[in-house]
Amino acid sequence: MRLIGWRPMADSGAAPGSEAASPEPRRGPEARRPRPAAQQQSAAEHHGRPAVSIRVLVSAALIVLAIVALVAFLTSIISIVLTVLVAIVFAEGIRPLVQRMRIRNIPQPLGIVIVYVALLVFLGLLITLLVQPIVSEATSLAHNFPKYKSDFLSFFNNVQEQLHFNFDITKQVGNLLGTAQQVLVSIGTTIGAVIANFVLVLVLGFLWLVSSERLKRFVVDLFPERHQELATDVFREVGYRMGGFLRAVAINSVVVGVAVGLACFFLGLPSPVVLGVFAGVTAAVPLIGPFVGIIPPVLLGFTIGPVYPVLVLAVLLVIQLVDANTVVPMVMNRVVALPALGVVLALLIGGTLQGLIGALLAVPVAAALQVVLVRVAVPAVHAAQGRTDRAYAGAYTPLSPHLKASAPRGGGRREHPR
Known about the structure:
This protein is mainly α. The protein has helices at about 35-45, 55-75, 80-105, 110-145, 145-165, 170-185, 185-220, 225-265, 270-280, 290, 295-300, 310-325, 325-335, 340-385, 390-395, 400-405.
């Protein structure tokens, strides 16, 4: 007799095709037994966490130590490094002129000499036109400075009494004006140092233009063949950014200096040439420099009348706003291509480390670092993560507009920098 719902139990000797009960989970010591290597590899691939070996950690630590040692060494010779950087930026700025000479079948050294002679003739004419007015106006300004200082202090004393300020603004203004007077007195020594450094920059720039292509070729040849195209592009992009920055700064400084000088002349301010030159020089520092160039004309406006500084400030702000919305986007932003936050941080770091010269070099150095970061570091991180982010490559790693025309279709190999 067969019971309803009864099923025979499967024994250990059941046939292979017979139905068997599912095995129970392992318990006790068997649960702690290590899994096979194949299962561990599949689990690692599943979680997507590649193991970091001791060799990788040691290599990373050595690289960090090497970078720290290099930074410490460069800090000890920072004055030489800054001079060399200025020479490189200057040389890259005039490189298009030298390349045009080569297109006309003129040897490169002779082309560099021709460009240098043309620049020196232009600077000589400019100095001839400006030095005499600058010296005479600076002398007059220094001679009349005590009168201007007393006018400033009396004006601020009246303001402080009317507004009942507890802050001793007169002392602060007096210290500021005393510093300005020392700067005016030391103009002769400053001009001599500038001329000596300019001659050194010319010599180093000549040597860079003559030997930089061979140096780039040597560095590119150190890379594996699959990376030489990228190294060539990075060198070319960095040179374009640095040289473009110098050309953009020169154009913008001339525009701002001429506009501010003419405005000060028509407003009846004393020493309009000095004020225009000062505004043009400070315009070389992006974002911050244009507003620094406004301060001396506004202060001199107090010598004419209490309301006159407001008129001077309004006119100069209009000039700076027009420049910031027309000239700067055309000649600066499309070349440097740094975000505003990056420019401000670079200026703060460079100015804190090395003052005015550090602030001037901060932007081209930051632009060069941006090229290396965007073209090399970010794609390397993406490749290490197994990402092929074509959208990122198309949106954030383009060549500069000037270099896109020479880029072959499909990202092929560009001309080797020989």
